[in-house]
Amino acid sequence: MRTRKTAIIDKSIVNGESSIVNNLCAFALSEGFTQSGVRSRVAKNTYNLIPTTYYLSPKYRAAVYLRCMKMQTLLIALLLSAVLHAQSADEKQIRTTLDRQTAAWNSGNLEAFMDGYWRSDSLMFIGKSGVTYGWQNTLNNYKKGYPDTAAMGKLHFDIIQVKRLSVLYFSVVGKWHLARSIGDLSGHFTLLFRKINNKWVIVSDHSS
């Protein structure tokens, strides 16, 4: 027959934290401690959500706290892993968008290149000639500045930094280079990506 145990939880070691009390009670049950009514020494207004309490002797306190700490460490590790995975997936999607833009440009397809931008009148492009607003206006400027494949040349991006700003925004800093028979061009860019309809798109482009 299983030996009945009595566990003693001192009010001083829980400091009024109901979550800790719950963990202590759960541990006491798993260890076979006997259940007893709430004693007057435990303030009812503090533990009014706990119908019963357990009394845990000093012998078992270390084991209880060790178990609680292990659970907290595991939860933190799982949360961190989820955040890193999400960031990795988002960054991968952004880099894929830039790779697709490079391929579209090098094939002479400016419309496909513009798929990486926010298709909105609020899109902002900042270049040497100033600020341009709107997806269509930005495409028109590209067509005017690069009328044929000789002018477009072959594009290469050198990514310097991809940084998450928030859940909805990423910034990308890098260099661009055009290898052309009529003379190479190069410069730097800063892109602001925003997640819209579950897709990362460029909402602001500063290239010079």
Question: How would you sum up this structure, described in words?
Answer:
- With 208 residues, the chain is of the alpha+beta class.
- The protein has helices at residues 11-14, 18-30, 58-106, 110-113, 135-145, 149-152, and strands at 36-37, 52-53, 124-127, 130-133, 154-164, 169-179, 185-196, 199-207.
- It folds into two domains: 11-82, no CATH class; 84-207, Nuclear Transport Factor 2, Chain: A (Roll).
- It is built from six helices and eight strands.
- The strands form two sheets. The chain has a six-stranded mixed beta sheet, with helices on one face. It has a two-stranded antiparallel ribbon with strand order 1-2.
- Helix 2 (18-30) crosses helix 3 (58-106).
- The protein is elongated and about 80 Å long.
Domains, number: 2
Termini distance?
Answer: 82 Å
What is the tally of beta strands? Answer: 8
> Which range does the strand content fall in?
25-35%
Spell the H/E element sequence: HHEEHHEEHHEEEE
Based on CA inertia axes, which overall geometry fits? elongated
Average predicted local confidence, pLDDT: 78
Number of helices: 6
Helix content: 40-55%
Q: How is the biggest beta sheet arranged? A: 6 strands, mixed
Here the CATH topology of the largest domain equals: Nuclear Transport Factor 2, Chain: A
Cα gyration radius (Å): 31 Å
Which class of secondary structure composition applies to the elements?
alpha+beta
Strands of the widest sheet, in order across it, are 4-3-8-7-6-5
CATH architecture of the largest domain: Roll
Low-confidence blocks of residues: 1-17, 33-55
Give the CATH class of the largest domain.
Answer: Alpha Beta
